[in-house]
């Protein structure tokens, strides 16, 4: 029973870490997209 508890706790920790990483990548991608959009608008004008 203790082994199962340890495995569940480890899985929960890894899942939480992965969510934070994916969220950070999403923010970075969004910022890069905004930079590209801004550069395209500047080149257009």
Automatic annotation (TrEMBL):
- Transmembrane helix is among the record's keywords: no
One of this protein's GO BP terms?
Answer: response to toxic substance
Protein name (Swiss-Prot/TrEMBL): Entericidin A/B family lipoprotein
The answer to whether the entry has keyword Membrane is: yes
Q: Which InterPro entries match?
A: Entericidin (IPR012556)
* Sequence similarity: Belongs to the EcnA/EcnB lipoprotein family.
- Please tell me one Gene Ontology term that the record gives under cellular component: membrane
Q: Where is the signal peptide?
A: 1-18
Q: Which UniProt keywords apply?
A: Cell membrane, Lipoprotein, Membrane, Palmitate, Signal
Organism for this UniProt entry: Brevundimonas intermedia
